């Protein structure tokens, strides 16, 4: 009887201790995070004009004004839409070509071995560097940005796709062969299917790359787009405008990341 | 609580205990559930200096938990753990710990791994090399000093992890199923190695195993634990004279007597824990220590 | 009887070895032939197409013109002049970013709370496209070397930081416990366990960041500079000098390639204990 009572006591103590620590951790964690953010924003706001040159560092309230101005004047929607459009088509172009290339080269080891050094050479070209070339080739309109975005996307998807095809265990292929799978079935049912998770990773992680590609293209030359907003504000020494445009861009990327996470969680159940 | 021989010769320990657990309870709270679970209940144990003790019991009965308490890696929920008469608080560096995985550092050569503890203690390189060379030789690993763990077999890595603990001469050594994943022959050879190393210095060893024969072959005492929550069921005095021959331990006088009685105890426990597991839901694997 | 079996076994072994060697050799021959053909077809086709005006040489240039442009740039010393700029920006920025990344990873993993407090902010910063900060950095630091160094460092910092943290946090808890029982201090743990364990992760990050650090430097040069290979490329847009642009781009690719190759032996040496990793580049 007494032993049983003591057992209960010990268990209770363990749960109590656990709960207390959990609660303490929770509050310290979230309060510290919040406090850090507030202190940072407040310090920026207050110190700007005292320690920080507002000309260079602006201040949160001014940035907010700029955001409001952008939204109300309609410049926000206009520019964001253009950048999204560039990134979208660039993504489609880059991801589609990369997927096809990865599937073909992944399935043909000899062909892959042949083109590998060429790929490595092209891969070593810093992506930004071809921007001016694309301007010469495709003009300063949307096309050069679409292709630059596609170039930013291509290698991420391609590398993941190839490593996906390579990661399909030899055993799966052998088993399917023994079961009498034809070549076409082998490719679609086993190899591409087995490569899907890797390919998905590439397709997911390359989405922000498309946006960056479009932005960089706009930096190099453009009259519209988020990249233009940033470089234009910068050229006018409008620091608050630069921060406002960067905030908008970050928000865009964040929203995309959240959407993608949701999508890939849905997809993960299907692609395993 | 039945003991065949409580603490050897009656409850008042005749030899000073170096490791002592007094009515120890340990409860864990499983990750999300906020449900506490007893891992150890009212465990009392008193290990005299210089003896070789084994702990056996069904898996999950808290054997590793006991070793962790003695090493000071976790604290009891209730009761006290004493080392050399003092309460263990924080990590107990007076014990050596041989874990089930060999836990060698993959980027260090065999010799550098063996010398790790001496290095931590600031022993000069020449002295370290001398001592490691001797131990490496004694377990038959000479010639492999410059090899990396990935280049050694499982048995060789095990030997390395044992002499890595022996080299800094702690008074007590804890071993957690050290020979678990090895094949039967290698096990026997390593048991023989271990006994021989132990005979030279007679340090206190607490040896966790699930192998009955191994426990009998090596130990002075065998502690049998019962299934969750872990309790001490009985402590057996093995009584087979030393030095022992692990390869022919079956023929040793008194072996079958101890074996039969131990087996009777353990098969009960295994039956209990199996019945319980069949009824239980799957246990939460990632759990937070209370 | 025994002799017969032995010699048959020997013959089987020999045949297996020969077969393996033959197929290896035929593979190597076909691959190298294929590479050669592809090279000839690409370069030759391009040259021919430009000569026959299938491609407009003003826009696509052609291999011989690019080679000539490269040679002229090199001979006049202007190629080296610009390369120096870019190399300095890259090397300093890369080293700075890598160093800060490793130091930050060590400091933040020292204890749990600061890490968990800062984690969401670092992730948010990581999520901001660093290249988009280019104009801001130029606004702050002018058009000298500094803004490019800052951009290159930023590109390097985050990946190195992230990977190092992953490495540090994946250290085996068992191993930590074993060393603590051995009497290791926190410093011992970092020096002899945690950092050596994280090193391969850091090196992987370094390999991955070489091209993107150069990207940072080049973008900086596009946004305002007086020298550098990126500046050289950008300058040619107005002259439509595609040959010079290509020559400069090829030089950049060569630089990236050289640095990646330089890092390879280091990685191999660090992973020398691990047969499985040792081989891949
Ligand atoms: N850190 C921990 N958190 C939660 N539960 C634990 C922890 N360590 C051990 N346990 C639980 O305590 C019991 C005993 O574990 P352990 O000592 O490892 O058993 P043994 O070594 O005898 O197999 C098990 O039920 C196990 O799930
Ligand atoms: Mg255990």
What does this molecule look like?
The complex is a heterotrimer of chains A (272), B (290) and C (281). Chain A is an all-alpha fold. Helices cover 86% and strands 0% of the residues of chain A. Chain A is built from 12 helices and no strands. Chain B has helices at 63-70, 110-114, 116-120, 125-138, 154-166, 184-201, 212-218, 255-279; strands at residues 17-30, 36-48, 52-56, 78-83, 86-87, 95-98, 172-176, 204-208, 221-226, 231-237, 287-288. Chain B has a domain at 1-94 and 208-290: Rossmann fold. In chain B, helix 5 packs parallel to helix 6. Chain C has 2 domains: 1-55; 62-280, MetI-like (MetI-like fold). Chain C is 83% helix and 0% strand. Chain C has helices at residues 2-51, 57-60, 63-75, 78-109, 112-127, 134-141, 145-169, 173-181, 186-222, 229-235, 242-270, 275-278. Chain C is flat, with a radius of gyration of 26 Å. Chains A and C meet through helix 1, helix 5, helix 6, helix 10 and helix 11 of A and helix 1, helix 5, helix 6, helix 9 and helix 10 of C. Bound molecules: adenosine-5'-diphosphate and magnesium ion (MG). Adenosine-5'-diphosphate binds at residues 28, 39, 59-65, 228, 283, 287, 289 of chain B.
Q: Helix/strand/pairing class of chain A, anyone?
A: mainly alpha
Number of helices of chain C: 12
Predict the CATH topology of the largest domain in chain A. Answer: MetI-like fold
How far the N terminus sits from the C terminus of chain C, by CA atoms, comes to: 50 Å
Kindly report the name of the CATH homologous superfamily of the largest domain in chain A: MetI-like
Keywords:
heterotrimer, A: 272 residues, mainly alpha, MetI-like fold, 86% helix, C: 281 residues, 12 helices, 83% helix, disordered C terminus, binds adenosine-5'-diphosphate, binds magnesium ion
Overview in brief:
Chain B has 290 residues and is an alpha/beta fold. Helix content of chain B is 33%, strand content 24%. Chains in contact: A-B, A-C, B-C.
Topology overview:
The complex is a heterotrimer of chains A (272), B (290) and C (281).
Chain A: H1 2-47, H2 54-57, H3 60-73, H4 75-107, H5 109-123, H6 131-138, H7 142-167, H8 170-178, H9 183-205, H10 207-220, H11 226-235, H12 239-271
Chain B: E1 17-30, E2 36-48, E3 52-56, H1 63-70, E4 78-83, E5 86-87, E6 95-98, H2 110-114, H3 116-120, H4 125-138, H5 154-166, E7 172-176, H6 184-201, E8 204-208, H7 212-218, E9 221-226, E10 231-237, H8 255-279, E11 287-288
Parallel strand pairs in B: 3-8, 3-9, 6-7, 7-8
Antiparallel strand pairs in B: 1-2, 1-4, 1-11, 4-5, 9-10
Helix pairs in contact in B: 5-6
Chain C: H1 2-51, H2 57-60, H3 63-75, H4 78-109, H5 112-127, H6 134-141, H7 145-169, H8 173-181, H9 186-222, H10 229-235, H11 242-270, H12 275-278
Helix pairs in contact in C: 3-11, 4-7, 4-9, 4-10, 6-7, 7-9, 9-10, 9-11, 10-11
């Amino acid at each position: 009887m007494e032993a049983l009572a003591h057992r209960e006591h010990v268990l209770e103590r363990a749960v109590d201790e656990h709960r207390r620590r959990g609660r303490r951790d929770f509050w310290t964690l979230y309060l510290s995070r919040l406090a850090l953010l507030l202190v940072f924003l407040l310090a920026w706001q207050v110190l700007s004009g005292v320690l920080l040159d507002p000309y260079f560092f602006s201040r949160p309230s001014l940035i907010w004004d700029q955001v409001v101005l952008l939204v109300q004047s309609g410049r926000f929607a206009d520019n964001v839409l253009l950048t999204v459009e560039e990134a979208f088509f660039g993504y489609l172009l880059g991801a589609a070509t990369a997927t096809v290339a990865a599937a073909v080269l992944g399935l043909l080891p000899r062909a892959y071995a042949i083109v590998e050094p060429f790929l490595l050479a092209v891969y070593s070209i810093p992506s930004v560097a071809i921007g001016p070339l694309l301007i010469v080739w495709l003009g300063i309109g949307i096309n050069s940005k679409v292709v630059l975005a596609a170039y930013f996307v291509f290698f991420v998807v391609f590398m993941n796709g190839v490593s996906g095809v390579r990661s399909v265990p030899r055993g799966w292929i052998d088993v399917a062969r023994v079961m009498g799978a034809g070549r076409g079935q082998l490719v679609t049912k086993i190899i591409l299917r087995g490569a899907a998770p890797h390919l998905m990773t590439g397709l997911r992680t390359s989405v922000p790359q498309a946006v960056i590609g479009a932005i960089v293209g706009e930096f190099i030359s453009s009259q519209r787009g988020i990249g233009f907003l940033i470089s234009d504000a910068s050229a006018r020494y409008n620091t608050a405008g630069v921060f406002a445009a960067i905030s908008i861009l970050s928000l865009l990327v964040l929203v995309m990341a959240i959407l993608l996470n949701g999508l890939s969680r849905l997809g993960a159940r299907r692609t395993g | 609580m039945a003991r065949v021989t409580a603490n050897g010769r009656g409850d008042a320990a005749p030899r000073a205990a170096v490791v002592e657990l007094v009515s120890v309870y340990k409860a864990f709270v499983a990750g999300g559930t906020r449900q506490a679970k007893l891992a150890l209940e009212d465990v009392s144990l008193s290990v005299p200096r210089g003896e070789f003790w084994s702990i056996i019991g069904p898996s999950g009965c808290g054997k590793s938990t006991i070793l962790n308490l003695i090493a000071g890696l976790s604290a009891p929920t209730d009761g006290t753990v004493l080392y050399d008469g003092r309460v263990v608080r924080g990590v107990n560096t007076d014990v050596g710990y041989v874990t089930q995985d060999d836990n060698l550092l993959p980027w260090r050569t065999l010799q550098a791994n063996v010398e790790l503890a001496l290095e931590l203690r600031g022993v000069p390189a020449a002295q370290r090399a001398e001592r490691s060379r001797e131990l490496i030789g004694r377990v038959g690993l000479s010639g492999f000093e410059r090899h990396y763990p990935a280049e050694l077999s499982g048995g060789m890595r095990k030997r390395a992890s044992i002499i890595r603990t022996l080299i800094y001469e702690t008074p007590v050594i804890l071993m957690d199923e050290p020979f678990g994943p090895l094949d039967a022959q290698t096990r026997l050879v390593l048991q023989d190695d271990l006994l021989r190393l132990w005979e030279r210095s007679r340090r206190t060893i607490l040896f966790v195993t699930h192998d009955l024969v191994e426990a009998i072959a090596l130990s002075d005492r065998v502690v049998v634990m019962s299934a969750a929550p872990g309790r001490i069921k009985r402590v057996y005095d093995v009584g087979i004279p030393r030095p022992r021959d692990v390869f022919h331990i079956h023929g040793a006088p008194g072996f079958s007597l101890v074996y039969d009685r131990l087996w009777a105890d353990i098969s009960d426990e295994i039956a209990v824990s199996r019945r319980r597991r069949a009824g239980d839901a799957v246990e939460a694997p990632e759990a937070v220590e209370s | 009887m025994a002799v017969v079996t032995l010699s048959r076994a020997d013959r089987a072994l020999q045949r297996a070895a020969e077969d393996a060697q033959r197929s290896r050799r035929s593979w190597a021959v076909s691959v190298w032939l294929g590479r050669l053909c592809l090279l000839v077809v690409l370069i030759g086709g391009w040259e021919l197409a430009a000569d026959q005006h299938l491609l407009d040489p003003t826009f696509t240039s052609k291999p011989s013109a690019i080679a000539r442009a490269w040679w002229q740039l090199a001979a006049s010393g202007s190629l080296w002049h610009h390369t120096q700029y870019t190399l300095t920006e890259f090397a300093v920025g890369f080293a700075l970013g890598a160093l800060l990344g490793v130091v930050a990873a060590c400091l933040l993993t020292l204890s749990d709370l600061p890490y968990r407090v800062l984690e969401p902010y670092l992730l948010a910063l990581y999520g901001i496209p660093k290249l988009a900060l280019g104009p801001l950095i130029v606004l702050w630091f002018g058009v000298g070397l500094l803004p490019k160094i800052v951009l290159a460092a930023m590109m390097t910092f985050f990946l190195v930081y992230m990977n190092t943290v992953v490495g540090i946090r994946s250290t085996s808890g068992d191993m930590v416990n074993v060393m603590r029982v051995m009497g290791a201090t926190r410093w011992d743990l970092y020096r002899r366990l945690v950092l050596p364990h994280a090193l391969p992760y850091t090196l992987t990050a370094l390999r991955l960041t070489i091209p993107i650090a150069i990207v940072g430097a080049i973008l900086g040069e596009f946004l305002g500079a007086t020298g550098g290979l990126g500046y050289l490329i950008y300058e040619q847009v107005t002259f439509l000098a595609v040959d010079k642009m290509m020559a400069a781009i090829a030089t950049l690719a060569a630089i990236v390639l050289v640095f990646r190759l330089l890092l390879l032996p280091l990685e191999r040496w660090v992973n020398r204990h691990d047969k499985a990793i040792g081989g891949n580049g």
